[in-house]
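Structural prep section.
Before we set up the soaks we want a predicted structure of the protein with magnesium ion in place, mainly to decide which crystallisation condition to try first. Input record follows.
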Amino acid sequence: MGSLVLPKKTKKIALLGATGSIGRSTLDLVARFPERYQVVAMGGGRKIEELLALARRFQPQLLSVQEESGAEELRRALRESGLRIPVMAGQAGAVAVATHTQAEIVVAAMVGAVGLEPTHAALQAGKDVALANKESMVMAGRLLNQLALSTGASILPLDSEHSAIWQALNGEAKKGVAKLILTASGGPFRDFSAERMQEVTPAQAMCHPRWQMGPKITIDSATMMNKALEIIEARWLFDIVPEKIEVLVHPQSIVHSLVEYVDGSVLAQLGLPDMRLPIGYALAYPERLALELPRLDLAVLGRLDFFPADPERFPALSLVRQALAAGDSGAIAFNAANEVAVELFRQGEIGFLEIAETVADVLQTVVREEFSSLTEILDFDAQIRQSLL
Ligand code: MG
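Run finished without errors. Recording the tokens verbatim:
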């Protein structure tokens, strides 16, 4: 007797950051596997026309945008297209998307600290979160882990390095782990001297050699602040002491990260740099999607290079150790100061090297404190930002 093949159940997704690079990659996967995935709620920022096109294509039941004026514009355009989809705005809108009753998994792909509240709300509502918004883990990793534990929700990494570690840890006992090794492309200024970096412009910092990403993360990659934030992210995602997390420069971005075990074995995950791989892994876990994308051919590639990270030229890598030693307040201040400094650099207000200097100055003022609520965390974050205005 043949076995009955049941149709696969469609997984319902709430997507925040729909018009960013992670959002677009997520929607590409949804479009490739319409029988497996459906977007039930979608949030974006200010790209109203793009959101309108996405709403037409994916027909979510709820939309949210950054500002009320944008929401008005989108409502009008939807009406003209004959679509009846409610549109919300601001943090309330993002939270409504993240907690949509039908959503089973939330793809949290907003940029910066604004991602924390909706991520928190999703976990509180017991929804699994596929997390690309590393800032929320940096600011509130302890709190989000506790929350996930209490509601039974899972936090699944989307960051390529953390996905690689997740894959390399699959099925292994934690006590066997000696260290986590995060790879870093080194960004566009990998070989620059400190003197050359002094003169770097925002346009130069925006040219990442391997990944096409938004402006904030691209500049974070140039300062290696991105890798520093990823150390804190890994610390909470994998509940491991920071001393066991290292950084290795690997310009080709093929080895996405590695786990070294106590016996000396090292497991790595390799692949072409394409965010659809880590996103697909999180969405389909524990299965794998049959993705028809270009394949890694090591014989064609021929070689992979690795270098030690240089905290002299990239002070973010030593500042993050200082931030971690200063507990929750250290990590929140580190992130807030960096966000403000990146914005000032983009506006031409400060030089490239002053991004790390701003973070260093702020860390000098921070007293170690632990926070047990979202309000305390958001208040302290606001206090740091205020001090930099
Ligand atoms: Mg990354």
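Observations: The chain has a mean pLDDT of 95.
Flagged for discussion at group meeting.
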